[in-house]
Design goal:
Oligomer: heterotrimer
Pfam family, one (chain B): OppC_N
Number of helices of chain A: 18
Largest interface: A-C, 69 and 59 residues
Helix content of chain C: over 70%
Distance between the termini of chain C: 6 Å
Largest sheet of chain A: 8 strands, mixed
Helix content of chain A: 25-40%
Family (chain B): Belongs to the binding-protein-dependent transport system permease family.
InterPro entries (chain B): BP-dependent_transpt_permease, MetI-like, MetI-like_sf, OppC_N
Number of domains of chain C: 1
Structural class of chain A: alpha+beta
Number of helices of chain C: 13
CATH topology of chain C: MetI-like fold
Mean pLDDT of chain A: 82
Radius of gyration of chain C: 24 Å
Shape of chain A: globular
CATH class of chain C: Mainly Alpha
CATH architecture of the largest domain in chain A: Roll
CATH superfamily of the largest domain in chain A: Dipeptide-binding Protein, Domain 3
Largest sheet of chain C: none
Protein name (chain B): ABC transporter permease
Keywords (chain B): Cell membrane, Membrane, Transmembrane, Transmembrane helix, Transport
Low-confidence stretches of chain C: none
Chains: A alpha+beta, B mainly alpha, C mainly alpha
Strand content of chain C: under 5%
CATH topology of the largest domain in chain A: Dipeptide-binding Protein, domain 3
Mean pLDDT of chain C: 86
Number of domains of chain A: 3
Chain lengths: ~575, ~325, ~325
């Protein structure tokens, strides 16, 4: 491999020269950043105390990309990674999932109504001085408002849920003929004020988390056509080439490689690493590619074997808790009898499966919430242990009986056999930590005379059936949101309440927790709510795992990575100071 | 070279004998087939594979998806707890175990015995091969027979249908159909039959084309005129007089088709739409090869199913090749 | 012959209609549509928002109405905007088919250079050790699942020996231009091309062998031998030329297929060809792209058949197409 690299290097220098003489030198500077040995001899003038980096380019492994890098329309995580490098947001998260000023300082004020409840919440964002887009033009309040308006447009067909926020005037803009959103006001060139009806603890993320898009770029296409309400074609024309106020400028997406170049105009200072590239790779090759020096930073899925492999290869790595947890869910509408659900719960043998699959890299959790969250009750103990005898008791309590049928036992109620279908998004190959839990459950149920049908399918189909409430039982993972609010998932009116859990007390606790900012009160509410959810037997929490980030320390300067990384604050959280050796 | 000579000398007296004895065409085919050593090897391979898959499971007490656990070096399974509690802490799944006396080929990543799964997987893979090819032949022969025999408008209609099926890309359709199956909650045990049905339906066009072409040329021959003269029913004329004449080609297609169906199932498994978990098939077992860690360190997990596929498909191809050479009346050597 | 071609093209229109109707019907019956693809990761997506998206993407129309809409704009040459790429579907295909082509072409040439001579050699030495060895090796190639063979190659030549890159299309770290860029790409394409070649040699080799055997048994070959011509002359002057007729026909029919892409192999090697993005589109429910893609594949198949028929008439003067 080394040999080949050298050969190509020579070739490239020759052809580079040839090209420049022919074309008449179209580049400002000769091709210098193609590689390792060549760049070594170069020195750029710098008064920094830091010594000059030998490497100019770092390559990051990524899963497949759609090439839609628009802050409005990117849908997949790899595409969004690029968007967040190129675009800056008004606010960001700090290490503990609290909002922190990024491009703008923010202020939240609550307006109280006469009865003492909060009638309106006012958010004010003021852009910091010297914040510019990568083309050098300053970021203004108009750009922020433009970004909001695109997201709230009636014709907007991207993934953002901005239009569901209770902003004053949103309804009129999104569904009616209003030309402005009355609750979003420009105070001066740098300040935007947003008025929200009532209170919503998670709104700060939807308002401040947006990536600001320059109106002069996303609002006008190459042909000079301007964006108008109801027509997405102008913002969409920029999908493949984003431009924003992030630390990097978008270079190109060709041959499955994304090239990003440092943005000298970045308000936090010009980034120390000139070029970052993203190489698309298959999940299975994330470590092998690192070993072959095809990339320098990678996130292979963690397992004890993987850790051993990484250590054997001599790479440095970081293990960071995953923002989310794995669970097995049950649909209370399809399995209405609580006793049956409890019986099923007692058939799930989680520990050996998780210990085998993840070793030390995951822990079995006892409440359905990521342990990363401040609201997770650390003293929680096991609710349903693996106990087939107890399970059978519960099934019998639900009215099921074991009858002899054609020489086989059958667990029946009113002549109908107990039959449960479980969906698992194992990509058809059951590549899933929970797989042995289900396999064992199937065996245990067969012994009792019941049937467990395991339907392994790929993600889209799986979620589609989940959405329509079509699984009896399913295996999935929740991606935790920054705020532990449970309304979406467990409130009887919640849009993502796939469990169909309807519990008045639970509803009350959830609503109560939403109406205060006092962390202790909320913690208490959530702890009680979690117990109720466990008792309803609609969700078996399974594991909290760690993510693994592997670095080639020969190239990456490990000292320049942020200290105390958390799930909210990962290796590129301070990308402007990220440097190479 | 030496072998060739032996063969030739052996053949001489036989050919002389042939002149004296009457040799039926069947015997001739048989003789030509037996001369092909690869074809014989193919037959041997296939017989071994069948025995292994269909009789093998009778000699083991492990089930197809029995999970093995281990604690402090003591092994027990989900079928036989041996007085141990699978929930105790310290109990681990005996996954990726190296080959041992208890597990001759070790266990896979979920702690299931590989040898046993290989047998059950063979059953499924071979079954799929037979059923799918059978379906393709049945549909193909009927449609091709009708088209070739009647000609005219019917022929035209059927052949356009054949063209359409010929142009439908298989893989995308399989992916769509499998997601439709999941969506409509087709019970797992039927899924595999539907899978076979779809594979059969998508593959009949080639057979129909061949049958039609053959029948078109046979139709004009004297013996067919004779059957018409004595007033045989068309169905009988097709089945009794036309199809037997196409049979040699059909047998060849069928044998080779069997191999490609097994391969196709493996590809479907790779894309996650093959034989559903926790049933084993060679295709879904060989998938593990794409995990670099398993690939590098656990030869016992990925190699056996890969080798079984290779041998079986090779066997079918050998036999198919041999049959074709043997059936071809133009082959005089 | 011109009449024949016109007739075939006319029939093709009906075939394409049939294929498109079947595929559209299937795609729309499939459960996971594009809206659920983009919203299923978002817990706070309201049903209202989803309903609106469904309307914006035109997925609220019935299957028949949707098909008629698609057809009428397709006839005007507009295959619709790909949902994923937000670009006209035909532009996406035009972009990516060349990647697939440049991967398939070398493999195709190699296949011809290897398979045809092997087939002829093994036919002339039927039932010899050479025949057995060649046949076995060629058949091993077609007896392996592609992903299996690809993984073994990656293990041996990339992870093991480090001769070739594991995947990808270019060396991301470098910014090669011009000739170096082409060489770099070629170097990345070695393993995928090997996979494609080995996987398809068997078929063509077997085809050449059978045809050669048939020719060798023909009366005119016996006559040639009886005349006392040398074996070399018999085989290469008389037999080989006649074997070429069916081979040229078959090979000609394969050419359009070079653009169709290889779903599995491209995926394994992270090569952004037509197969790779086709699979992605299929998984996320990108209906306009899938329709364009399957139509493209169908047209390639039809072209292949037509081409092989025409070649048949060109190469063999006895054949008259009508």
């Amino acid at each position: 491999m080394k040999k080949f690299a050298k050969k190509f290097l020579v070739l490239s220098v020759v052809s580079g020269l040839a090209a420049s003489t022919l074309v008449g030198c179209s580049q400002d500077k000769p091709q210098t950043d193609n590689g390792t040995s060549q760049a070594a001899g170069e020195k750029e003038s710098s008064g920094d105390t830091q010594k000059e980096s030998k490497y100019k380019t770092v390559v990051v492994a990524s899963l497949e990309m759609n090439g839609v890098f628009s802050p409005f329309f990117a849908t997949t995580a790899p595409d969004n990674d690029i968007v967040s490098m190129v675009h800056g947001a008004l606010i960001k998260t700090d290490r503990n999932a609290q909002p922190e000023a990024d491009l703008a300082d923010y202020k939240i004020e609550q307006v109280e109504a006469e009865d003492g409840s909060v009638s309106e919440t006012i958010y004010t964002f003021t852009l910091k001085d010297g914040v510019t887009f990568s083309d050098g033009t300053p970021v203004t309040a108009d750009d922020i408002i433009f970004s909001y308006k695109v997201l709230a447009d009636p014709a907007y067909d991207g993934p953002s849920t901005f239009s569901t926020l209770p902003v004053v005037g949103m309804e009129e803009y999104n569904k009616g003929d209003a030309t402005e959103i009355s609750g979003i006001e420009k105070v001066d060139d740098k300040t935007v004020k947003i008025t929200l009806k009532g209170i919503d603890p998670s709104a700060i993320w939807k308002l401040g988390g947006i990536e600001v898009a320059p109106k002069s770029y996303y609002g006008v296409d190459d042909a000079g056509k301007e964006y108008a309400k109801g027509d997405m074609s102008v913002p969409k024309s920029r999908n493949a080439a984003p431009m924003g106020a992030g630390a990097y400028k978008f270079g190109s997406f060709e041959n499955n490689v994304v090239t990003l170049n440092a943005n000298e105009n970045y308000y936090g200072g010009a980034p120390a690493t000139p070029t970052i590239k993203y190489q698309v790779t298959a999940e299975s090759n994330k470590l092998e590619g690192l070993k072959l020096e095809e990339f320098d930073i990678s996130d292979p899925s963690s397992s004890p074997d993987m850790v051993a492999d990484v250590e054997a290869a001599g790479f440095e790595y970081e293990l960071i808790d995953n923002l989310g947890y794995g669970y097995i869910g049950m649909n209370a509408e399809r399995i209405p009898d609580k006793n049956v659900r409890k019986g099923l719960m007692h058939l799930m043998n989680r520990r050996p499966a998780i210990e085998t699959y993840y070793g030390d890299l995951a822990t079995v959790i006892e409440r359905p919430m990521s342990t990363v969250s401040w609201a997770y009750p650390q003293d929680a103990t096991e609710y349903y242990g693996f106990d087939p005898a107890k399970a059978l008791e519960y099934f019998k309590a639900a009215g099921y009986e074991q009858v002899e049928k054609n020489g086989k036992v059958s667990l029946e109620k009113d002549g109908v056999q107990l039959r449960v279908e479980v969906g698992i998004p194992g990509g058809g190959t059951m590549e899933h930590p929970t797989a042995p839990v289900l396999t064992q459950m199937k065996t245990e149920m067969e012994k009792m005379g019941a049937v467990l049908e395991i339907a392994d399918t790929d993600g889209t189909v799986f979620f589609d059936r989940l959405e329509t409430g079509d699984w009896d039982m399913w295996v999935a993972a929740w991606q935790a949101t920054v705020d532990p609010d449970m309304y979406q998932t467990y409130h009887s009116q919640g849009p993502s309440n796939h469990y169909n859990v309807q519990n008045e007390e639970l509803d009350k606790l959830i609503v109560e927790a939403r109406q205060t900012n006092d962390i202790e009160v909320r913690k208490d509410c959530y702890s009680k709510a979690l117990d109720i959810i466990m008792d309803e037997a609609v969700e078996m929490p399974v594991y909290q795992r760690k993510n693994m980030y592997v670095f080639n320390q020969e190239i990456v300067d490990m000292e320049s990575l942020p200290e105390n990384m958390t799930p909210y604050y990962t290796y590129f959280a301070e990308v402007e100071t990220f440097r190479l050796k | 070279m030496a072998e060739e000579k032996v063969l030739q000398t052996n053949n001489q007296p036989e050919e002389v004998a042939n002149l004296e004895k009457i040799v039926t065409p069947g015997q001739l085919v048989m003789k030509r087939f037996l001369r092909n050593k690869l074809a014989i090897a193919g037959v041997v391979i296939l017989v071994c594979m069948f025995l292994f898959s269909f009789l093998g499971p009778l000699f083991t007490s492990y089930g197809e998806y029995t999970i093995f656990f281990v604690k402090d070096g003591v092994e027990f399974s989900s079928d036989d707890h041996k007085g141990m509690d699978p929930q105790e802490s310290g109990v681990k799944i005996n996954g990726k175990a190296k080959p041992s006396k208890a597990h001759l080929l070790g266990t896979d990543k979920d702690g299931r015995d590989i040898l046993v799964r290989l047998m059950y997987g063979g059953r499924i893979s071979l079954l799929i091969g037979f059923v799918v090819v059978g379906l393709q032949l049945a549909v193909g022969v009927i449609m091709g027979g009708i088209a070739g025999y009647y000609g005219g408008v019917i022929d035209n209609l059927i052949m356009r249908l054949v063209d359409i099926f010929y142009c439908i890309p298989t893989l995308p359709v399989m992916l769509i159909v499998s997601s439709i199956m999941v969506a409509y909650g087709v019970p797992q045990e039927y899924k595999i039959y539907i899978l076979m049905l779809i594979m059969g339906i998508l593959g009949w066009a080639g057979v129909a084309r061949l049958v039609r072409g053959q029948i078109l040329s046979l139709r004009e021959q004297e013996f067919m005129v004779a059957t018409e003269a004595i007033g045989l029913h068309p169905a009988k004329r097709i089945m009794k007089h036309l199809i037997p004449n196409v049979m040699p080609q059909l047998i060849v297609i069928a044998t080779m088709g069997m191999g490609s169906v097994i391969l196709a199932e493996a590809s479907y498994s790779y894309l996650g739409i093959g034989v559903p978990f926790p049933l084993a098939s060679w295709g879904n077992m060989v998938n593990t090869v794409t995990d670099p860690i398993i690939m590098r360190e656990y030869l016992n997990i990925w190699f056996p199913p890969g080798f079984c596929i290779l041998l079986t498909v090779l066997g079918f191809n050998f036999v198919g090749d041999g049959l074709r050479d043997a059936f071809d009346p133009k082959m005089k050597r | 012959m011109r009449q024949y071609i016109i007739r075939r093209l006319f029939i093709s229109i009906f075939i394409l209609l049939g294929v498109s109707a079947i595929i559209y019907g299937l795609l729309r019956t499939a459960p996971a549509d594009y809206v659920s693809t983009i919203t299923n990761g978002i817990p706070d997506a309201t049903p209202e928002m989803k309903a609106k998206l469904t309307e914006l993407y035109g997925l609220d129309k019935g299957i028949v109405e949707g098909y008629v809409d698609w057809l009428s704009s397709a006839l005007k040459g507009d295959l619709g905007q790909s949902f994923i790429y937000n670009k006209p579907a035909q532009d996406v295909i035009k972009d990516k088919m060349w990647v697939s082509f440049w991967m398939a072409l070398p493999s195709f040439i190699l296949q011809l250079l290897i398979a045809i001579p092997l087939g002829i050699i093994s036919a002339t030495k039927q039932y010899s050790i050479t025949d057995y060895t060649v046949t076995t090796i060629a058949l091993i190639g077609i007896s392996l699942p592609s992903f299996f063979f690809a993984a073994v190659l990656q293990r041996a030549f990339s992870m093991g020996l480090g001769w070739f890159p594991l995947q990808g299309m270019v060396t991301a770290r470098e910014d090669y231009v011009g000739f170096a860029h082409i060489m770099d790409m070629a170097w990345h394409f070695v393993l995928p091309i090997t996979v494609l070649t080995v996987l398809s040699i068997g078929g063509l080799m077997r085809y050449s062998r059978t045809n050669m055997l048939e020719v060798l048994n023909a009366d005119y070959i016996r006559t040639a031998r009886a005349k006392g011509l040398s074996e070399h002359k018999v085989i290469y002057k008389h037999a080989f030329r006649n074997t070429l007729i069916p081979i040229v026909t078959m090979v000609g029919g394969m050419i359009p297929g070079l653009f169709s892409g290889a779903m599995i192999t491209e995926g394994i090697f992270s090569i952004e060809g037509l197969g790779y993005i086709g699979l992605k589109a299929l998984r996320s429910g990108d209906i306009p792209f899938m329709m364009a893609f399957t139509m493209f594949l169908a047209i390639l198949t039809l072209l292949g058949t037509l081409l092989s028929d025409i070649l048949y008439a060109v190469v063999d003067p006895r054949v008259r197409l009508k």
